[in-house]
Amino acid sequence: MSAYNLFHTALFRMIDFRNGTGIYRKLAQLKKEQYLPPEELQNLQTRRLREILPHARDHSPYYRDLWSRRGITVDEHFHRSSLLQLPLLRRPDLQENWKHILCDDAVGHSPDASGGSTGEPVHFYHDRDYAAFSTASRLLFQDWMGIRSGDKTAVFWGADRDLKDASRYDRLMLRLNRVKQLNSFAMTGQAVAGFIDVINRFKPKYIYGYASSLHHVAEHINRTVPLAFRPVAVRSSAEMLLDFQRDAIEGAFRTRVYDFYGSRETNNIAAECPTHRGLHVFASGRIVEVVDDDGHPLPAGEMGQVAVTDLTNRYFPFIRYVNGDMASVKEGLCSCGRTYPLLERIHGRISDMIVVNGQYIHGEFFTHLFYGRPEIRQFQLVQETPTDLRLYIVPRTDEVDVAFLRRAVIEKVGPGVTLEIIRTQHIQPTAGGKHRFTISRLHDNT
Ligand SMILES: [Zn+2]
Q1: Residue 247 class from Cβ within 10 Å (0-12 exposed, 13-18 middle, 19+ buried)?
Q2: Distance 168 CA to ligand 1 centre (A)
Q3: 61-69 vs 91-101: helix axis angle to the nearest 10?
Q4: Cα–Cα 20 to 30 A to 399, which of 12, 28, 377, 414?
């Protein structure tokens, strides 16, 4: 540990103590809880549910009415295994009812919001316990990766909005935390070369960003000159990390990539440990179920919808919240010794899945199909209706074998589907700077 690490830790411990935020107390707790025997971990979750659920019953008009209409009792005898009996909270429920989900004892807090790719944004609130868990679980994850408090960090983020809007306080924090933000939104070749110069001089120990941004930078490094330093860890988040992206990023940065999963509504849900055999759910604060469309749990290995229960936020209870992501559960315990349960992988957003003939096909199938075809610079497959697909391609050369593409896509999706192939100059990233390989208009409001 360097002198700066010690200074940084001491400073932030002092701030935590002065503000009474309880972050380091929570971190010490999480460090123990991650190794609890599975049964004790379940008991811990049961105890937390016995605080969160009766509070929701007494203070959230939405849950009070919903549960009473359905004759559901939540009390101090509630058990973790009974969670399945509670109804799911879907995104449209959240959009319609957020004012009634908010607990009547939540005061003096401004709402956070997350926008769908279409439709009105949803609003929600976070309490102090949520905030403490959020920072503590981030520090815990950094500990898994071997990153110390105050280590130099470079961020490849999708949008520059955050930096431009930064207050003086935020800028001071960036300097204290030794964070360099690089706006990777619509990166050009020249800009990427510039970023690589910056990080070669800065030599961060820790690099994080969107999977697609990191991949973009990694490809540039792999094509040109090796990096002049070797970071301790790279974290990929906010997008599904595809295998080919992981390979390219690990090759370029000569270190392991840690996949991280969270959302705006309930951040810090799961992350990889040094074993890289799935993502550990931060079970001290989150319960994750993988369910089918009716809310029934799916067996390990089967892809389904993520339902998150937040064990930390009393102001705005998220109970079995189906957030629009797809994942699969991994059976058994991790060899690292941590008992936090495992997700096998995150498959992306349901709105990024093509659904044909009752089958979910995620972007990765198509990236495998197109990746390594030098004549295609970029692609995006859009499902307009259950039977209409549009494939947008940005060709690099004139030698695009359209007949082959058509055959390959139709073979995967099956009969009864119309495919239109459209050549274009540019595929626009989302407002947040993410590239979507596949888009389903069937689920685009999720
Ligand atoms: Zn592990």
Answers
A1: middle
A2: 39
A3: 120
A4: 414
pLDDT attached to residue 304: 92
Task: Give the Å distance between the CA of 178 and the centre of ligand 1.
Answer: 28
Res. 397 pLDDT band, cuts 50 70 90: confident
Task: Tell me, in angstroms, the distance from the centre of ligand 1 to residue 300's CA.
Answer: 17
Q: Which domains does the chain have, with CATH numbers?
A: 354-440 (3.30.300.30)
Closest CA to 263 of 325, 317, 316, 320: 325
Q: Could you tell me the distance, in angstroms and rounded to a whole number, from the CA of residue 240 to the centre of ligand 1? A: 19
**Paired tokens of 59:** 């203070």
Distance 164 CA to ligand 1 centre (A): 38
Q: What is the 334 CA–ligand 1 centroid distance (Å)? A: 5
Q: How many CB atoms lie within 10 A of CB 168?
A: 7
- Residue 342, both tokens: 């495992």
Q: How far is ligand 1, taken at its centre, from the CA of residue 80, in Å?
A: 23
Other Cβ atoms within 10 Å of 385 Cβ, number: 10
**Whether 253 contacts 234, CB under 8 Å:** yes
320: tokens are: 């079995």
Closest Cα to residue 446, out of 301, 293, 287, 288?
293
In this prediction, residue 446 carries a pLDDT of: 42
Residue 1 pLDDT exceeds 90: no
Q: How far is the CA of 338 from the centre of ligand 1 (A)?
A: 5
28-72 pLDDT, tens digit per residue, is: 999 999 999 999 999 999 999 999 999 999 999 999 999 999 999
